[in-house]
Each structure stands twice: as C-alpha cells, then as structure tokens.
Amino acid sequence: MEKRAYEIFSNINRSVSITVIPGHFATKHSHISHCVDMTKVKSQLSSAKAAAKMFAGMLISTPVDTIISLDRMKMVGAYLAEELSGGGINRGQNISVISPEINNDKMLLRDNFIPYVRHKHVLILTASASTGLTVESVAEGVSYYGGEPVGVAAVFGGKFESHIPLVTLFGMENIPDYQSYSLVDCPLCKAGAKVDAVVNSYGYSKIL
Question: Residue 98: helix, strand or coil by DSSP?
Fold first, then answer.
C-alpha cells in the first residue's frame, strides 16, 4: 500500500507536508479514497513549528484565549499559542492549550478544564476536517460549556458548510481526486473493492 504513497509540500514552507495514499479507507464517519497521513506535522519539531506559524498568519485577527487540540495536535497547538501571543490581536495573551475527552463525538470537559472554556474565545485545532462532523460537534460542546468557538484550524480540510471560520494548510485542491462517501453509499464497496486500511487520528492499520 505504501508504494502508492506520495508527498505534498506546502507552497509557503516545504517543512510542512502531508503524505497521501490512494486506495479505499474506512474512517469512523465515512469511507475515503485517500489516506492523508499527517504524522510529520504532528510529531516532528520543525514541521510542527512551521505549521503553527502558517496557521498564526491566517489567524492574526482572531481573538484566542484557548486552543482545543484534537487528533494529537498538541505540539502544534503549543507552538501556535506562542506564535499568536507574539503579535496581532493576541499579543501578550497567555493562551491555554487543552485536549478534552471525546466520547461518541461529544466533547466532555472535566471540572478542571471548564474555566479554560467558559467565557473564552476558543479555537479548535485538528489534523483533519474532511466531513466537518467532529469539529461541528466540538464547536457545539464549546458553546454548551459557555465558550465562544471562534474558528477551526485544520491541516487538511474538506468542503463542508460551517458556521464558524475554517482555515486549512491543505485542501481538496491539493488532492483533486479525493472523495468521501457515507458508510452505506460507498461506491468502492458496491464495486467489491476491499478496504485497504482503517484510519483514525493515530494513523492507519492495514487490513490483510
């Protein structure tokens, strides 16, 4: 499967890249035609720092008190907090970065985390927002706990309607053949194509 993989580099900073594998993949919400691997951005210091700087440039006018980090994006979140507090509307702001529990797509905040969301401007940071279901659910959770969701920052983002602003480093224009299908209407399944791997925020596991 990895023989099909290819790397896409950001036009702004080549330290930021994603690895794309064409095939047939199953996620929690859908079946997709390409696995987008963002391990380097999540795990490598230089890549995480460069990604944070790119996000900060897009969010210079967005007030942020707290960053909610999803999909193991906390290293990027820490660098993003530092970048945002260095200038623009958030200069000098002591921005918090938290990783809440997600159960059945619902965000759960323990009592110790609630003060970081209530009456705060909250940015949702995620690796992938292909269908928008998870980030929309988390945004609802932010509102439920008394915060204001001010935006979503995603390394890779799909095309979906969102009531809050979305900024991405890579999108459908970078993978023109990318398709996302509902679990019951997947044409690849109907054509008898086997699922190559199961994909989640930790990566992918091949199905032998």
Answer: strand
Strands of the 96-98 sheet, one edge to the other = 96-98, 66-69, 121-129, 148-157, 166-171
C-beta neighbour count of 85 within 10 angstroms: 16
Q: What pLDDT sits at residue 3?
A: 87
Question: Which pLDDT value is given to residue 161?
Answer: 76
Q: Which of 208, 185, 201, 199 has its CA nearest to residue 21?
A: 199
User: Which residues have CB under 8 Å from 100's CB, separation 6+?
Assistant: 68, 107, 108, 109, 113, 138, 141
Q: How many CB atoms lie within 10 A of CB 150?
A: 20
Q: Which residue has the tokens 């209407």?
A: 185
The list of the chain residues with pLDDT below 50 reads none
Give pLDDT, residue 29.
82
Q: What is the DSSP letter of 193?
A: P
Distance CA 106, CA 101 (A): 8
